[in-house]
């Protein structure tokens, strides 16, 4: 008799999954808890362990196939269930999170780390938030279609090249997709010098601030040669679906205000050196803006909420999502309880999340439970943007390029560092009054920042 | 500065230290009237007398044991092992006792002695006059091990070794004795133990060696330079304490490491250096750590063709470097 393996329920928000890659083939023996298959759900890629020990009889789903949770995907013959007998069902046991503790759905993943890029999704009970954040964030152009499940080799998405430790380290330091480098070593191996020359040539685009690299076209050309068809990756498809869901279900409105951040610029300059020496990493404007946003959210709790049909669900925790351009696409890792942190703590938390997002080391917990999303579109050179709400949150705020502008103060022309902040909000939950109040609160908190203020 | 041979540098160091410190004395086979089989102590018996340049019977265990006892009493003996091949009868005195005394007495008893040993092959010395013995002492904590390759280094390091309060195994490669000549300052100088010397600066490959093969490494590096490969040559000079900092700095700079020694490859000094680089410079390595060493045969063959086959040469080293450079 063989045991039928079902596509496991991995999170309260996930209703279907795609077979990324089979790690065992028919005839292989598999131990209990040994990784059996890579499953892509929403933006989560994970290895699913076998619930039983035995040998794989047959696979019931092909790679790339999308199935509902609970669907049979394989049969495994166990020692006490000889082949040929009636298959019995062996659902994979997964812990499901209680609605208010979104992190626990990551239980399985923590056991089988590392996990691929992760992103929460969306459910009827509106509980978890997720990765469906808004405006298209540019990403490093992938040279080759990236197999969605590549949990082990963060810098070798193609999985074809073995990299020396030196090359691997340099590629990570410079955030380089090595598949773009032409190797000159033995058998085309990418050498340390190849990476260094690539960096010197300027071809390695800085992760976020660089001009948006055009996506390299990889696909079939139409018969007439007029069009090229790019295969949509699972990640791309899920981003697309999340965007459609947001714009079709949420009647959103948009507003922007201008903020004088001269004091913030001076504050950051005054504490930056000491911070970077003390904590390492760079001190950007992000944690200061996060601080202002979480404080404003405490003042305007309905901005930290979800539409529940017959009720407005106000979230008591401020879990701030941060849009990050990861190698495979947009990811929104979440800094849980962001209101508990100092500016320095926010800096550390944000750096940790974005680093792990870029190296695909996020766990499911990291991408679930968001209550409001912040997007640093200014890093991309944007002056103003219209973000799409990260469903089912109540709003999303962007902060834009800081520019010195001539402004009028007391009837005199002054040169000040100015920045726009833009808000898209769910108009079912809030009206313009609340939205403007929220933006004004963020603005006044940012404008109050000045040298002398402690960031610890 | 005068140009001198390695053997002259060794002799000068002994003479100067004996003149400086009356506790220093030499004991060994044929060191007195004969002046040593390699003439390292030529003229010293006349200068310092037979009580400080002592001719000993062919009994290495006794030479080492007497030297050890003298060191316990505060003397600074320089026992000579005529050929390093003959050190084995004295291993108990050397490894069993000398290396452990300071540690075992919690520092109460120190062993300030220098065991000089001509070693190495390439001189048609055959099975019993060509051995490389350094790995045994390199493996033993409590001993310092020095293996210079130039007259300047030999003199400066030997003087430091004599002044050191630990037992120091001082390895002199026989083939360098008269083959290698170089400038030696006329004035007094010493060189610190435990400090490697970058004998050639380069950026593509780190080549680590010591003793005779270091010269072959320099030759190979010169050949590779003509082919566009920039090799950095690190002369360990002292095997214990090992200058890990210089090795790691160089490996981190170049990303590729090759190690050359005449001693057998397995479990040799090169293995330890490879482990060091793999352990502490892993993320800098851009190629397989390469060892170009003596093969694992019991001892140096006598036949010229076989000895040639055994010895690392500039050609063999260049071939290994080319492969590593192309990786």
Would you kindly provide a written description of the structure presented here, covering whatever features stand out?
The complex is a heterodimer of chains A (456) and B (327). Chain A has helices spanning 107-111, 165-173, 192-200, 234-249, 262-279, 286-299, 343-358, 432-447, and strands at residues 2-6, 16-22, 29-30, 35-41, 44-49, 54-59, 66-68, 72-77, 88-90, 219-221, 228-230, 252-260, 305-307, 312-314, 320-322, 324-326, 329-331, 334-335, 372-375, 395-399, 403-409, 412-426. Mean pLDDT of chain A is 78; it is low at 93-160 and 206-212. Helix content of chain A is 23%, strand content 24%. Chain A has 456 residues and is an alpha+beta fold. Among the domains of chain A are: 2-94, RNA polymerase II/Efflux pump adaptor protein, barrel-sandwich hybrid domain (OB fold (Dihydrolipoamide Acetyltransferase, E2P), Beta Barrel); 236-447, Chloramphenicol Acetyltransferase (2-Layer Sandwich). Helix content of chain B is 39%, strand content 20%. In chain B, helix 6 (151-163) links the parallel strand 6 and strand 7. In chain B, helix 1 (6-20) runs parallel beside helix 6 (151-163) and helix 9 (244-254) packs across helix 10. Chain B is globular and about 60 Å long. At the A-B interface, helix 2 of A face loops of B.
* Envelope shape of chain B: globular
- Biggest interface pair, counts: A-B, 11 and 9 residues
Q: What average pLDDT do the residues of chain A reach?
A: 78
Q: Percent of residues of chain A in beta strands?
A: 15-25%
Measured between the Cα atoms of the first and last residue of chain B, the distance is 43 Å
Secondary-structure content class of chain A:
alpha+beta
CATH-defined topology of the domain at 236-447 in chain A:
Chloramphenicol Acetyltransferase
Q: Specify the CATH class of the domain at 236-447 in chain A.
A: Alpha Beta
**Taking all residues together, what is the mean pLDDT of chain B?**
96
Number of DSSP E strands of chain A: 22
Low-confidence stretches of chain A: 93-160, 206-212
Question: What would you say the CATH architecture of the largest domain in chain B is?
Answer: 3-Layer(aba) Sandwich
The oligomeric state of the chains shown is heterodimer
What's the CATH H-level superfamily name of the largest domain in chain B? Thiamin diphosphate (ThDP)-binding fold, Pyr/PP domains
Helix content of chain B: 25-40%
Largest sheet of chain B: 5 strands, mixed
